[in-house]
Amino acid sequence: MEFFDLMKAIILGFVEGMTEFAPVSSTGHMIIVDDLWLNTKEFLGAGSANTFKIVIQLGSILAVVFVMWKRILSLVGLYKIEGQTSSRKFNLGHVLVGIIPAGVFGVLFEDFIDENLFSTNTVIIGLIIGAFWMIIADRVGQRKTTIKSLDDISYGKAFKIGLIQCLSLWPGFSRSGATISGGVMLGLDHKTAADFTFIMAVPIMAGASTLSLIKNWSDLEPSHTGFYILGFISAFVFALIAIKFFLRLISKVKLVPFAIYRIVLAVALIVVLYL
Predict the structure, then answer these.
(1) Handedness of CA 244, 102, 115, 125 (dihedral sign)
(2) Could you tell me the pTM of the whole model?
């Protein structure tokens, strides 16, 4: 594999790491950058290129584990969060009921998504619809914010956020955009919704990556190993930089600025591709 091909892995890792936690769709951005510039399908093959875009997200998820390790360990009883009581405790059950809907729909529609939705055209649709979803969420959320800690989330709200997360199966909609917006609509403040989104991402992306690797194993070649490793490391490093910044930013600017960015990006893509 040539030097510039390996550089493409680092570039895609940068795109993934910097956009995974913002509600702008990391998968959508990788598809756009790849389709319009990098064209990794030419040397990886379509199956391996799509698998890479999913597996690379494990680098970003590892960054979540590094940043939120105390909260994650508390889910399995290995760490005590200050102020938690048995009657007021965010636990593994909340995560499980939150990931079940997207997990079920993801398995049922995985083939359809891989074969039909990994394109710039579908990303444009997801960017626009997701943007309006976020604007509506900020409008609604201003009137009903009552939950300002993970420990105040009920199982019912966790499940409802999980249902809303299914919208993100459409590339470009954004998993964090869907779930943060859903959480805000259900009364969570922006940071709590973001925290819940990031924690749910750990098992979801680990499962999605494993399934994609198994499904496309025959498309992978030993020569692709370096490309995958570089992308993983790049995504991890840039995600570490991005996650703390985003958690501070989302509490201040809310969702509308990200929605505006999504609309501007979608319009720019339409101009470039069709006008």
Answers:
(1) negative
(2) 0.88
